[in-house]
Design brief:
The complex is a heterodimer. By secondary structure, chain A is α/β, with parallel strands linked by helices. Chain A has 21 helices and 23 strands. In chain A, the strands form 2 sheets. Chain A has a 21-stranded mixed β-sheet. The radius of gyration of chain A is 25 Å and the shape is globular. The model of chain A has no long low-confidence stretch (mean pLDDT 95). By secondary structure, chain B is α+β, with helices and mostly antiparallel strands. A 5-stranded mixed β-sheet of chain B has the order 2-1-7-5-6. The chains are: A alpha/beta, B alpha+beta. At the A-B interface, loops of A face helix 3 and helix 4 of B. Chain B: Residues 92-179 form the PB1 domain. Chain B: Homodimers and heterodimers.
């Protein structure tokens, strides 16, 4: 019976629910549970900042202490979303400053953050603790100075891979002398040199510092001084890891690293001089995460390092590792869960390293816990994909980028449909998939039939007709995000599956064949979707209705059409359809 | 009136459109609805660019393939961090060379020289002078000129003291000094 427990008891029970899914489910049980839940939800996640407005959020959840918001669509990472599209943080901060004075955490991804917003954050929330800016832009180091100066209880400042206008390194010196609460600092994306003595003092006086990711400007000779002051570090990112070979630098580094008995994660390594890698060897046995994606070092040096890390769970590395290095990885690192291999020369016409599909096959065979893969390579075969699928049915994320668009199976010259088909058929828990290479509608038939747990799908230069899109939209039950570029998908599949779009977070289609007329129709049919046409050629009604739009971004929303659109974005809504026809 | 405005394709505006690029080349976005056969994608475009280049056109196509926007899918943040080292490797290490008394400076690419002797030969050629013999004790003997360089810290150093590789990475600009100023540098005093 709904009234068998007093409110306080229910609230107490709900406090144990951390997952949003669970809380959302609880709030649907009955009105009283909805009420109780909304008053005690402390952490909110907004997967698309335009799906809801700050006012709606605040009205429903009056006492929030942690907010996570995502802005631009994923393809913005590859410059497909024009500058000025949106995802501004300011309206959120200004609303939350009034209603959530006790807000502690703000985590953002792909949002436009200004110095003004940062200053407002630093002055509005007295107990502010955590700021994570992942792939954000729009702010300068002055904004960081405000945070440093005013957030007395700051624990975490993580700039992940944001694009910051770096005016100077002076911001770090704004942390007051009595500021000691820092637990995590990631400034790896910044260019300017910070005052080293200020950094040293900061590290010295923050006994709880667990994560320190330096930027490239911190030279290797200065690392020992920092490591000695923070032997409790768990995650460490070096700066430029190079210097002339000197035994004193080397031995200082060895000693300093040995003092860090809790190090689990290493990153940084710009400009690596291989001779300095062994300085880390005595911490390698505890290392579980290694990010070498900036380390332009050859395979033998990489192998020597990796062979010291039997507990490695996550490796990000350049393709300098080559097939031989991946073979070594598969024999030394049996705990490996995540592998990302990036291309050292993505625009070169010819391969510059000996990295092929074989490397990935070997890792899939040798690493039983491998569940997450991002792999850039220049050739692939159905046979290899089938082998990978059979070896690793426990894959959760599989993102393959064959550098040449529409590259076929290099052995048979056939499309890679059967290969990817095998992936979705065997890997029943697959949640994320990125396709590449030569693909026909057939691969989408396989995906629609088998990929029942798939949540995110990225497609480029693939398919033959609308049938491909139809298979995906009608078959993938768990699909939340679909992003498509340069595919011959048009109106039919989109309109036929319009209802599906309300069950998803978003759909992105660029350089496809969706006509303006179809977009208008979709907007008209589906009032709870924002159907945004992004077109830098000018107003879509200056062209025929059958003309395909440049870019289309469709997302469900309870906030109605955006009010902050730039002049190259149009929202297709009921009124627009009537006005323009 | 809008109704009268023809479709772009009817007027064939594309033919009269002003664009940068070699005549005959298409834009590289894959708007075609057909599944591209390997020949079309790989060789068709590439051969077109190569043959046009061979025709001696000054605006030669880039050595790597025509780049598609946002492909391969790499974040520009990451590219800036890794690629910047690479482009330096490809575009050479140009430094300014000044000579005392000369009206203007020159620029040379240190990367193309195998060592000091080749560098000196090039400088002698460029400025019509002789540099003389290097000795650790006395600098450059037998000439009025001494080659000096500005290093990363901004100090003026005599060329030749350190190994070539180290010199290449620390040299920011070259200066050919003349006369008493030059000989003063190399003095044992």
């Amino acid at each position: 019976m709904a009234y068998s427990f007093p409110e306080e008891v229910l609230e107490y029970v709900f406090a144990f629910l951390s997952s949003d899914k669970d809380r959302n489910a609880v709030s649907l049980v009955c009105k009283s549970w909805y009420e109780i839940e909304r008053w005690c939800r402390r952490r909110i996640f907004i997967g698309n900042c335009y799906a809801v407005s700050p006012q709606i959020v605040i009205r429903r959840f009056p006492e929030v202490s942690a907010v996570k918001i995502k802005g631009k669509p994923h393809f913005a990472d590859f410059n497909l979303v024009p500058e000025g599209w949106g995802a501004y943080l300011y309206p959120w901060i200004s609303a939350m400053a009034r209603s959530y004075p006790w807000l502690e955490e703000i985590k953002l991804k792909r949002m436009v953050v200004t110095d003004e917003s940062l200053e407002l954050i630093s002055k509005s929330f007295k107990n502010f603790k955590v700021l994570v800016l992942s792939s954000c832009e729009g702010f300068t180091t002055d904004g960081l100075a405000s945070i440093a100066a005013n957030c007395r209880n700051l624990r975490e400042l993580d700039l992940k891979e944001s694009e910051v206008e770096d005016l100077s390194g002076h911001w770090l010196s704004h942390f007051p002398d009595n500021f000691t609460s820092l637990v995590s600092l990631n400034m790896s994306c910044l260019g300017s040199e910070v005052s080293f003595s200020a950094l040293e003092r900061l590290v010295s006086r923050c006994p709880n510092l667990k994560t320190l990711r330096l930027n490239r400007a911190v030279p290797i000779e200065k690392l020992p001084s920092l490591l000695r002051r923070a032997p409790q570090l768990v995650e460490f990112g070096t700066g430029a890891y190079s210097a002339e070979i000197r035994t004193d630098i080397f031995s200082n580094l060895v000693e300093a690293f040995s003092g860090c008995k809790h190090l689990k994660s290493l990153s940084g390594f710009w400009d690596v001089v291989p001779a300095y890698l062994p300085a880390m060897y005595n911490v390698c046995s505890r290392i579980t995460s290694l990010n070498l994606s900036y380390a332009t070092v050859q395979s033998p040096d990489l192998v020597e390092l990796i062979s010291q890390c039997p507990n490695l769970k996550c490796l990000w590395v350049l393709d300098y590792i080559e097939d031989a290095g991946l073979k070594a990885l598969s024999s030394y690192c049996k705990d490996l869960q995540e592998l990302r291999v990036f291309p050292s020369d993505p625009y070169g016409a010819e391969p510059n390293v000996s990295l092929t599909e074989q490397g990935l096959v070997t890792v899939s065979a040798g690493c039983p816990k491998l569940q997450s893969v991002l792999y850039f390579c220049r050739q692939m075969s159905n046979a290899a994909l089938i082998a990978i699928a059979r070896n690793r049915p426990n894959l959760i994320r599989f993102r393959l980028c064959i550098i040449e668009p529409q590259a076929p199976d290099y052995l048979t010259l056939e499309p890679l449909d059967t290969g990817f088909g095998a992936i979705v058929e065997h890997c029943k828990q697959l949640r994320r998939l990125s396709l590449s290479g030569l693909l026909t509608d057939r691969v989408f038939e396989y995906i629609g039939t088998h990929a029942k747990k798939l949540e995110m799908l990225s497609i480029a230069f693939a398919g033959d007709s609308d049938l491909g899109l139809h298979y995906v939209l009608s078959g993938c039950e768990s699909l939340r995000k679909l992003e498509i570029r340069d595919c011959p998908f048009g109106d039919k599949a989109l309109l036929a599956n319009a209802a599906k779009l309300e069950t998803m977070r978003s759909l992105w289609m660029s350089s496809c064949s969706v006509s303006y007329g179809a977009c208008k129709l979709l907007g008209q049919k589906m009032p709870r979707l924002n159907v945004e046409v992004i077109d830098e050629r000018g107003p879509p009604d200056s062209r025929p209705e059958t003309c395909p739009v440049e870019k289309l971004y469709v997302y469900r929303t309870v906030a109605g059409p955006r009010v902050d659109k730039p002049d190259f974005v149009w929202t297709m809504d009921e009124d627009a359809a009537l006005r323009l026809s | 009136m809008e109704g009268v405005m023809s479709h772009e394709s009817d007027l064939n505006l594309k033919a009269t459109e002003l664009r940068l690029g070699l005549p005959g080349t298409e834009e590289s976005t894959a708007k075609n609805n057909k599944r591209a056969s390997p020949e079309l994608v790989d060789d068709g475009q590439l051969f077109k660019l190569e043959s046009d280049a061979k025709a001696g056109d000054r605006e030669t196509a880039p050595a790597s393939k025509a780049q598609i926007v946002g492909w391969p899918p790499l974040r520009s943040y990451w590219k800036n961090n890794v690629q910047s080292k690479k482009t330096e490797a490809e575009t050479g290490n140009y430094v300014k060379v000044s000579m005392d008394g000369a009206p203007y400076l020159r620029k040379i690419d240190l990367k193309i020289y195998m060592g000091y002797s080749e560098l000196f030969k090039a400088l002698e050629n460029m400025f019509q002078l002789t540099i003389g013999e290097y000795s650790e004790r006395e600098g450059y003997k037998g000439s009025d000129y001494a080659p000096a360089y500005e290093d990363k810290d901004g100090d003026l150093m005599l060329v030749g003291d350190v190994p070539w590789e180290m010199f290449m990475s620390s040299c920011k600009r070259l200066r050919i000094m003349k006369g008493s100023e030059a000989t003063g540098l190399g003095c044992g005093a």
